[in-house]
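Protein in question quoted for reference:
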Amino acid sequence: MPQRRADEKQIERHWLILNKIGRRYGVAKRELIQETGVSERTIERDIRVLMRYFPSILKEKDGQQKRYRFKEDYLFPALDLPLLERMALTLAQDVTSFLEGTPYYDALASAIGKIKDTLPAENRDYFNRMREVLALRLQPMKDFQAVASKIAQAQEACTDRRRVELTYYAASSGESLQRKVNPYGIAYSDNALRLIGYCHTREDFREFVFDDRMRTLTVLDETFERRADFSLNEYAARGFGGIKDQSVEAVIRVGPPASRWVRTQRWSGLQKRVDLADDGIEMHFDTEGREGLMRQVLHWGSCAEVLSPTDFREEVAEEIRKMARKYEAPGAHV
């Protein structure tokens, strides 16, 4: 069975288990094994995961077997969406098309297919007409299909809080590195899907992009305790352009014509923007992504000038001088 199908099957199995537990007298472990066709170890692992998110699940002894049920005062909610909500959800597949090739996209496509089947024929016709005038498809920037199995492994490790070992090619040094990581979660930012976790070598949180730089990923038989003060969303929002390295507080002036486009965008780490009389803008950044910000300044070309700090201004200037030297002797590198 392909790994992406295994991830989808796990979601379906969890949903089935929750519904069985929601019955009046709950469900015995033996019944779950028979219903799902998986091993006792798999069912026990599923129950551990579900009990973490549904503390109202009780584990009881029923003779020689285990039985699971919800607490007496807990009501497991049924999914009953109004027609318009079901129609709106069917657009989610287009919105998340940039994740095509990942287990998430496959599971979503399967779920949306089931939702579409619940729509009356006349509503499906309306939905098809709506898609003719509303295009929400975002193209993936990376080949997620090539790393789909690693994504599924990492997701399982995050859920089970099991440590992973990575072989990762560092683009900056050109070296293959061995890293042991406590995986906290997976985040999509700046056109990349990233595994975020605590790196034991660096003794700090790091992120590892799911692409051909991730040579191997092995889930270890080692567990870890998740730090309560860590927020996946807050960490993913840090840095600039997908890069988190050094902090910098910088003031950058951007003139026309680039300024006319720049002022319409939202920029990570932007603290203040001052509109200037010549149609330019002065941008005040405070970011942990120094290298990412430098790349953005170079992208703006001659329209941009770093005003402060002095060391950052000189760093950008030196990179520009290196670039200029490559063009001083035309044809020298042909």
Observations:
- Residues 83-133 form one domain.
